[in-house]
């Protein structure tokens, strides 16, 4: 009986102990406000911690409060227990992303830089948790914790599958002659220098779903046409390069969109976890940010003005003069450019048919739209039921129940798409597009099933480098989340910081510098998005004069825009190099002639788009203003080569 009594007493004591426990985060930053949860059996509105009377707020999880902790020592009221958090200096939380960026800039290689950044973060965490011995276990933590976590996330797996499916479609419709059929139809419009340039431009826009496919297909296809029309290889390379990334970056069905959505989704999750409120899905946020994607949009307009008015300036003017006067003598044509095009070559003996490409592409595009509307309406229906209990009529006619401002068609459409399951829509549509491409290929006898599936696997292989970067980027984002890097960065802008408008512009410039130095838009997005999305929203939320959501939209767009600008200016950029190869253009000449155009557009985007937009000026004003300024630059600064040569 005595032993039973002791067991019951110990059990009761453990139960009371568990019910009077403060739970701190495993790791906290020194000198920062830390949120803790108190689980207790009694109602309580304050608690003495380290001699300070801390107010508590009742929640479903327990009583929550905040306290500033400078070290691991915590003194509580008698009868309360707590876990012992690790306390690290804030500057250590910056090491993983800074080291990853610095190594990428130094060695011009992204994969090892990201891995080392993750390793450093894991080592910091492990050393504080387990002492010096933790530095050895950190090497394995990179794989068994962070990379496994990145691959176990459902949205991340969706992005990987979508990227693989799109890569497969691109490779297959190239092999079965569909892509060449589209190209052949467009090439028929190239009769003069002007029409030849514009045809190349619109072909670049038409192949919007992948920048590599765009660059290699357009460059190799149009080279012989532009040579005959005395269009310089430098101009061809510029058109190819400057349509590829900008259109792939802003189109809503591309090999880029999956990565962009997952970065946005992860950033939003961090914001909501910190108490922020965002009532919009990742796809809706992406669509809203397009209003601030000044550089990609301005680039497409600027190029159209140059081609339509047949004007140039800078080094490009001299190359065009030489081509018009002397003709194009083959440039640096070699076998290198065709080596990169193997997976995009039509199979020998196959008759090109445009519908073999158009039908799968339209299936992906229309399927995604249908999927977004379907899943969005289903989500909105559940929200209406939650708010109103029930409703009569269609979901569309009752959308004002959950958003009173949804009184127009586009507001309703935006609400539906914003609540859609974008990952499901992308997966459904891309799988349908691939299935149709396989069916068209096999049913027409273009390739047997074995060769068809080999082309599918080839397309998958072309996406593997990008997927490796994505997984490492997700892992680095998890490290920065564990180390509270965003919280530490936010502290620099707390209190009296009033110039929130500068965040998007700094983001744009820094993204351009990183992309220029690394030669990769994807690695730049991987490094920047995890930091700036939560930072921009939380800092703007603390500033009364700014709309936090609009600042976040602008910042998201600025990462993308800066990445493309730096990519265009970088001599080590993959798409810049491929543009030179596919166009058989001297690479240095391509970089030298493209850079003045890219910097011109970048300057207009920064001073007439990003900064005014961050100050609250509507995109309905900044976008047309920037386009008009670019037109005036072309009109007054550019010179008409055809008229110039005619006078001579």
From TrEMBL:
Topology relative to the membrane: Multi-pass membrane protein
Stored Pfam families? Na_H_antiporter
Q: Is this entry keyworded Transmembrane?
A: yes
**Keywords noted in UniProt:** Cell membrane, Membrane, Signal, Transmembrane, Transmembrane helix
What is the annotated signal peptide range for this record? 1-18
Task: Say where the protein is mainly found.
Answer: membrane
Spell out where the chain crosses the membrane. 86-107, 114-143, 155-173, 236-259, 290-308, 357-377, 423-442, 463-480, 500-519, 597-615, 621-638
A single Gene Ontology CC annotation of this entry is: plasma membrane
Residues of the Na+/H+ antiporter NhaC-like C-terminal domain:
260-605
Which compartments is it annotated to reside in?
A: Cell membrane
Task: Identify the PANTHER family for this entry.
Answer: NA+/H+ ANTIPORTER-RELATED (PTHR43478), NA+_H+ ANTIPORTER NHAC-LIKE C-TERMINAL DOMAIN-CONTAINING PROTEIN (PTHR43478:SF1)
Name of the featured protein: Transporter, NhaC family
Organism name? Lishizhenia tianjinensis
């Amino acid at each position: 009986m005595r032993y039973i009594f002791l067991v019951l007493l110990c059990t009761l004591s453990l139960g009371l102990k568990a019910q009077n426990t403060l739970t701190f985060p495993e790791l906290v930053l020194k000198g920062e406000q830390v949120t803790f949860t108190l689980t207790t059996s009694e109602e309580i509105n304050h608690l003495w911690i380290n001699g300070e009377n801390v107010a508590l707020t009742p929640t479903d999880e327990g009583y929550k409060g905040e306290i500033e902790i400078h070290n691991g020592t915590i003194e509580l009221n008698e009868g309360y227990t707590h876990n012992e958090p690790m306390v690290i200096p804030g500057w250590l939380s910056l090491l993983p992303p800074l080291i990853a960026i610095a190594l990428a800039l130094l060695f011009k290689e992204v994969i090892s830089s990201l891995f080392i950044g993750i390793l450093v973060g894991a080592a910091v965490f492990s050393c504080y948790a387990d002492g010096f011995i933790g530095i050895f276990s950190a090497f394995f933590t990179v794989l068994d914790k962070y990379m496994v976590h990145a691959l176990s996330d459902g949205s991340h797996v969706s992005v990987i599958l979508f990227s693989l499916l799109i890569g497969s479609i691109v490779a297959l419709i190239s092999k079965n002659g569909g892509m060449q059929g589209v190209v052949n139809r467009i090439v028929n419009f190239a009769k003069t220098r002007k029409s030849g340039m514009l045809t190349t431009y619109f072909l670049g826009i038409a192949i919007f779903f992948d920048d590599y496919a765009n660059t290699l297909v357009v460059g190799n296809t149009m080279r012989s046409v532009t040579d005959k029309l005395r269009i310089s290889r430098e101009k061809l390379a510029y058109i190819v390069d400057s349509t590829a990334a900008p259109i792939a970056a802003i189109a809503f069905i591309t090999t880029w969109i999956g990565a962009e959505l997952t970065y946005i989704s992860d950033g939003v999750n961090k914001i909501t976890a910190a108490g922020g409120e965002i009532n919009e899905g990742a796809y809706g946020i992406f669509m809203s940010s397009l209003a601030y994607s000044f550089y990609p949009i301005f680039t497409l307009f600027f190029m159209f003005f140059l081609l339509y008015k047949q004007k140039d300036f800078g080094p490009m003017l001299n190359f065009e003069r030489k081509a018009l006067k002397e003709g194009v003598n083959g440039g640096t044509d070699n076998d290198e450019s065709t080596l990169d095009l193997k997976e995009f070559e039509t199979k020998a003996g196959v008759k090109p048919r445009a519908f073999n490409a158009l039908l799968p592409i339209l299936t992906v595009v229309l399927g995604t739209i249908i999927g977004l509307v379907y899943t969005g309406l289903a989500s909105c229906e559940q929200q209406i039921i939650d708010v109103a209990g029930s409703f009569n009529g269609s979901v569309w006619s009752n959308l004002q129940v959950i958003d009173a401002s949804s009184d127009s068609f586009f507001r309703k459409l935006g609400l539906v798409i914003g609540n859609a399951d974008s990952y499901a829509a992308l997966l459904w549509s891309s799988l349908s597009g691939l299935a149709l491409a396989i069916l068209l290929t096999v049913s027409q006898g273009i390739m047997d099933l074995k060769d068809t599936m080999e082309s599918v696997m080839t397309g998958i292989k072309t996406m593997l480098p990008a997927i490796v970067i994505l997984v490492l980027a997700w892992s680095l984002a998890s490290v920065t989340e564990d180390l509270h890097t965003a919280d530490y960065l936010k502290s620099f802008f707390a209190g009296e910081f009033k110039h929130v408008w500068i965040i998007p512009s700094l983001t744009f410039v820094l993204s351009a510098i990183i992309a220029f130095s690394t030669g990769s838009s994807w690695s730049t997005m991987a490094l920047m998005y995890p930091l700036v999305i939560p930072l921009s929203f939380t800092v703007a939320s603390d500033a009364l004069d700014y709309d936090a959501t609009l600042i976040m939209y602008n910042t998201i767009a600025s990462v993308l825009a800066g990445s493309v600008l730096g990519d265009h200016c970088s001599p080590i950029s993959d798409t810049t190099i491929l543009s030179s190869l596919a166009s058989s253009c001297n690479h240095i000449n391509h970089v030298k002639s493209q850079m003045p155009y890219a910097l011109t557009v970048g300057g207009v985007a920064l001073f007439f788009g990003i900064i005014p937009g961050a100050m609250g000026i509507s995109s309905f004003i900044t976008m047309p203003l920037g386009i008009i300024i670019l037109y005036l630059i072309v009109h007054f600064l550019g010179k008409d080569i055809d008229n110039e040569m005619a006078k001579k």
